[in-house]
Write a structure and sequence with these properties.
single chain; alpha+beta; Bacterial polysaccharide co-polymerase-like; 4 domains; four-stranded antiparallel beta sheet; two-stranded antiparallel sheet; 6 strands; transmembrane helix
Amino acid sequence: MNSEQADGPEPAEDKLDEPRKRRNGQQGRPGVGAASKAVPRLARAVGAAAVPAPPVGPIAPIRMADGSVANHPIGPARAEAASGVRPPAARATVKRRHRLTLYTFILVVVLPVAMLAGYLGSFAQDQYASESGFSVRKEEGATSVDMIGGLTQLTGSASTDAEILYDYIRSPDLVADIDRDLDLYGIYSRNYDKDPLFSLARDSTIEQKTDYWRRMVLVEYNEATGLIRLEVRAFTAEEAQKVGRAILEYSSQMINRLSDAAREDATRYAGAELEKAVETLKETRAAITEFRTRTQIIDPLEDIRRQSNLLNSLEVQLAEATIQLDSLRATVTVSRSPQIEQTELRISIIKKQIEEVRAKIGLGQDGDRADSGYAQKVAEYERLVVDREVSEERFRATTMLYNAAQAEADRKSRYLAAHVEPTLAEGALYPQALLLLLMTGGFLTLAWALLVLIYYSIRDRR
């Protein structure tokens, strides 16, 4: 009898379990399937009563993924791992580090926010805001005189002026000026005993006043439009409006100083040229005056014209006397006639005068110009006259340039245009308690979370 006949037919329950065993083998449990097959085959070979089951470990019933129950000769731990079912987790307990985390959150976040809320609700004084808006404007006009050219470019641009004004409003200079006129201590320090957090401290330095000023006076500058928005806070609406008007007044004065400086820059070159022309003209006129005083001649050229006319007249008289003398000699038979002697005397006198005139105007006996002091005086005077004419022409040109430059600078003058006058507040807007609490709570929460993360990071590295 062979082994197959000895074994006999398989039980019906083994045939029913065959699909389940096949599924268990396909689901990745080869060890369990092999063990379940080995036990019946060994029992059928030698007899279930004669041969005991091999010591393969305890048989543990577990529930499979498809809902069926199978007995596996493995331990409980391996059975639980094979089935994917884990034991229930242990109950969580509050440890010491958890309590410390909670305490630090209360100390760092909750307590400061509660203290700030109590201060804002009990001690903080109401603050009123006065708003205003203005801009720097500059009159633009066409250049009337081309000769001044680039001088008009020295005036700058309105955007640059607005940036200068923005810095001036936040500067210690304006704080000192307004403190001198309005007494900032009287405006911002009266509630110091009740509200020291939002009030100006007594006996503050100019740096401390400037820091407080920048918190109470907010300036916004729009580079695209050139508009400046101003918000002034104070503990009364009237004082806020008064401070806003003072800022506008001092800002207008600042713009006027900028206009004056630009006007001086635009006319400085023309003014310097005009001063040089005036000095040159004075020097040439002084030289002519000194020449006339030294030579006792008002106008040598005019004197020459008069002497030339006199010379022409004397020459005509000499010609007439000569003709008369020739006529007398032809008609008078007496050699020594009184008429002839008078005519001869007249001719000699005319000739003497002609010689004197010729000598005075620098002409020789033959009519050529001779070297004389009078001729040199005339040449010197002519040179002085030319210098005077050049100086006068330069003076007229520089005067026109200066007037044109000054007119152009006046046309491009700056001025402060306020499109929103300082308003009078009807209600208090500050301090914004809810916003301050949210910002403070958010910042402290972030700081606390960062500290906790740093602590746990260091703890995990140990």
